[in-house]
Design goal:
Elements: H1 4-35, H2 40-43, H3 46-65, E1 73-82, E2 85-86, E3 91-95, E4 106-107, E5 113-120, E6 122-129, H4 144-152, E7 176-180, E8 185-192
Parallel strand pairs: 1-8
Antiparallel strand pairs: 1-2, 1-5, 3-4, 3-6, 6-7
Length: 194
């Protein structure tokens, strides 16, 4: 679906093109009349034709931009665990049955929970993308006060995702599926198995 901003930019560009076409057509018409080599200026007014063409394209852009069809969406939340442990960090990737990635990656918290709003309703195949973790920025030369402040930040030291079976890391081998319902919140608990 084309955004309204893109339609406005397209419309402004087409208006500019229409103005330039009118200027060019006026120049061509005066050349034809001056040199008398052709009577096209009288039988086929270029300015009117180009202006009509530009306006048709402009109208088409507005029709495309005013598409009122809405995709049904819902909220998705839940947990991911493996052998009773939360699958920390990392991301969930949702793929449509056709194999296209359907949404932005959904981050997993350190407790294995996730929540995403405005997910298109439908059936999905789920892939887990583990995280390598994050040890924070280099602390060499940092004052003890600043280092203590950074270590208090929960994002300072993020451990890597626990080891999970490789089959969940690829769309071809993952057997995780879920269905997002339209409207409300869909809660799922995904248990990874060997």
């Amino acid at each position: 679906m084309i955004s309204q901003a893109a339609v406005r930019i397209c419309a402004a560009a087409l208006l500019f093109v229409a103005q330039m076409c009118d200027a060019l057509a006026g120049c061509l018409e005066s050349c034809f009349e001056r040199f008398g080599s052709c009577c096209i200026a009288k039988t086929f007014p270029l300015g009117c034709y180009m202006r009509r063409t530009a306006l048709v394209f402009l109208g088409f852009c507005f029709l495309v931009g005013c598409n009122t069809s809405k995709v049904a969406k819902g909220t998705l939340s839940g947990t991911v665990t493996y052998k009773g442990q939360p699958v920390n960090g990392g991301s969930l990737l949702l793929y449509t049955p056709a194999g296209a990635e359907a949404a932005a990656p959904i981050p997993l918290g350190q407790d294995g929970t996730f929540k995403a709003a405005d997910v298109a309703a439908g059936d999905y195949k789920v892939v887990i993308q583990p995280s390598e973790g994050y040890k924070g920025p280099p602390t060499q030369g940092m004052s003890p006060e600043m280092m203590a402040k950074m270590k208090a930040n929960p994002d300072f030291n993020q451990p890597a995702t626990i080891k999970i079976p490789d089959k969940y890391k690829k769309i071809e081998t993952s057997d995780l599926t879920l269905t997002v319902n339209k409207g409300g919140e869909t809660k799922v608990n995904l248990e990874l198995k060997d």
